[in-house]
Design brief:
Strands 27, 28, 29, 30 and 31 form a five-stranded antiparallel beta sheet that branches. Strands 1-39-36-35 form a four-stranded antiparallel beta sheet, with no helix packed on it. Strands 2-34-33-32 form a four-stranded antiparallel beta sheet, with no helix packed on it. It is mostly beta strands. It contains two helices and 41 strands. It is globular, with a radius of gyration of 23 Å. It has a domain of 87 residues: Immunoglobulin-like (Sandwich).
Length: 568
């Protein structure tokens, strides 16, 4: 079936009032406290739950109760309510130590995929890679202790996980071969947590040099695209590799060069181009940022060694972040030391052209130090951006601020950012995921109660209009149609759109031949933000086959079409 969620909170007021006992707006100033443990909770990571909320996972430091470091996870809804009321769920239930950072991704069915390393293999100084899948209720689907991804000698670290679009996952990690170099390997697990590739994983890059700071994204077809900075030449360069759903390396042995300039290229970041390829950005010698698009065949599509992201000749750029824009391009943000210094953003289209102000749009120019920018796409060309800010460069101080940017580069909210958390002490390890409505849900490690617990995990939210107020969001300034989420999906997906005035609305799903598959909407609606859920069935209630589909929105003022992929 197709079901509707009217997102504009003003229009939801009556429903919220009637159901006060079961639904409460838990967001509070300075964030919702997720943990209340006896020791430090560190390195949180976050991903969308596909229903307006989020999953948050983190490492808990050594405790007298557990006698080890442990990995925990919790789910919150879009109102900031903790959903797993029986408590935070421990992932490494055996007796061994686990290490951060943990990584997680939506499974495409409302659940979550998680990976980490721990020492249960029993080999001295050995870390092995494990993964777990949980459903939306917090039930473990891959056994009590998780699924083995790789167990063997040497050190494995920094595992990253992406959905394979079929309930399973592809994981990439760094392996210390013991020969003085670090290599990259990958493995795929099916929906039941069973390894599908070689028992020891597929070598992504085993060149006899170090591969560092790897990042990964789904290739949209059950495989993975990985990028990293590589020391095989005199300087650090950027390389990439694609492994398909069968575990077959698709590009050149040990990866293709993305940028091999003489300068140092480091800190690559990657986003899907929604066409089975990726867009990669990186930092070059702390002076500027570059980007490159690579297609499914491994061909680079923009200028050799990348295009310049920021054309301002003054200052230096660092800490680049990237998110897909839903139209084949990407939205980026970074810290910039130009005058005035601060957080800046830019949007690049599928051809490599910058769409916002040439030097980038200022997101925050407050008289303070901004660090750790993070970004989440709204799926329609805009983004939510969050950062840490301090009035002095001290370890024990830092606040959390955020703003949203619309597809045209118009920044929402106060010019200095909306305060997410200004509590005492240090807030760090900040991360953000989409809230599905143009804003973001944010998590961080918080030291305001450091004398009591060391640090705790908190969460907050910034809305699409650049505020933290759920009760008074603005109506859309123009009609829009967002990219569906999740995408690819199975079995259902959410389609969001907005109306700036009352209008007849037609929202339909078509197959690649242009045949009508399903009428989602055909009625007149008032101005508001809307979300429709398509359950992957045709007008007769029959489940449709896997493949590419298109959804089309027609109103009095706009006609928009977007692509989505169903993977059963």
């Amino acid at each position: 079936m197709a079901s509707r969620r009217l997102i504009t909170s003003v229009l939801l007021f009556v429903s919220i009032f009637v159901f006060t006992l079961s639904v409460s707006a838990a967001w509070v100033d300075n964030g919702v406290r997720i943990t209340d443990g006896e020791e430090a909770e560190l390195e949180p990571r976050i991903t969308t739950d596909g229903a307006g909320g989020a999953y948050i996972a983190w490492e808990q430091g050594f405790t007298s109760a557990l006698l080890k470091n442990s990995i925990f996870i919790q789910r919150i809804d879009g109102n900031g309510n903790i959903l797993w009321m029986t408590g935070n769920i421990i992932l490494n239930e055996d007796s061994t130590i686990a290490w951060s950072p943990v990584d997680l991704a939506p499974d495409g069915s409302g659940g979550v995929l998680v990976c980490w390393t721990d020492g249960r293999g029993g080999v001295t100084n050995s870390r092995d890679v494990y993964a777990q899948r949980l459903d939306s209720s917090g039930n473990k689907l891959w056994g009590m202790y998780g699924a083995e991804v790789y167990v063997g000698p040497n050190e494995q670290d920094y595992p990253l996980i992406v959905s394979d679009g079929a309930g399973g996952a592809v994981i990439v990690w760094r392996d210390d071969s013991g020969a003085g170099d670090r290599d990259l390997h990958a493995q795929r697990l099916n929906a039941s947590g069973v390894r599908l590739w070689s028992h020891s994983g597929i070598p992504v890059c085993t060149d006899p040099s170090d591969q560092n700071r790897h990042q990964a994204v789904s290739d949209g077809d059950g495989g993975i695209i990985v990028t990293w900075d590589d020391n095989r030449s005199a300087s650090s360069d950027i390389y990439a590799q694609r492994v398909d759903s069968d575990g077959i390396v698709q590009w050149a042995l040990d990866g293709i060069p993305i940028c091999v300039n003489m300068d140092q290229q480091t800190f690559p970041r990657i986003a899907s181009d929604d066409a089975y390829g990726a867009i990669i950005t990186w930092q070059e010698s702390t002076v500027n940022l570059y980007a490159q698009r690579v297609d499914a065949a491994g061909d680079t599509l923009w200028a050799a060694n990348g295009i310049v992201v920021c054309t301002n000749p003054y200052g230096a750029r660092s800490d680049p972040q990237i998110a897909r824009d839903g139209s084949g391009g990407a939205v980026l943000c970074w810290y910039d030391s130009r005058t005035p210094r601060g957080i800046y953003g830019q949007r690049i289209d599928a051809t490599g052209d910058t769409l916002w102000s040439g030097p980038g749009v200022p997101v925050c120019l407050a008289i303070a130090t901004q660090e750790e920018p993070r970004i989440a796409s709204d799926g329609s060309g805009g983004a939510a951006i969050v950062w840490k800010e301090s009035l002095r460069q001290q370890y024990d101080y830092g606040d959390v601020y955020a703003r949203t940017v619309d597809p045209g580069g118009i920044v929402q909210g106060p010019s200095t950012g909306v305060p997410i958390c200004t509590a005492g002490g240090l807030q760090r390890f900040i991360h953000i995921t989409t809230d599905g409505s143009g804003g973001g849900i944010i998590t961080w490690s918080d030291y305001r109660n450091s004398a009591e617990t060391g640090s705790d995990i908190y969460a907050g939210r910034v809305y699409f209009n650049g505020t933290t107020d759920a009760d008074t969001p603005d109506l859309p300034q123009a009609g829009f149609l967002s990219q569906n989420y999740p995408n690819p999906f199975n079995p259902s997906t959410t389609i969001e759109f907005g109306l700036d005035k009352t209008s007849p609305v037609s929202l339909n799903v078509y197959d690649v031949a242009g045949r009508l598959v399903r009428i989602i909407l055909d009625e007149t609606l008032p101005a508001a933000h809307y979300a429709e859920v398509w359950d992957g069935k045709d007008g007769s209630g029959n489940a449709v086959a896997s493949g590419v589909y298109f959804y089309r929105l027609e109103t009095d003022t706009i006609t928009r079409t977007r692509k989505m992929v169903l993977l059963r």
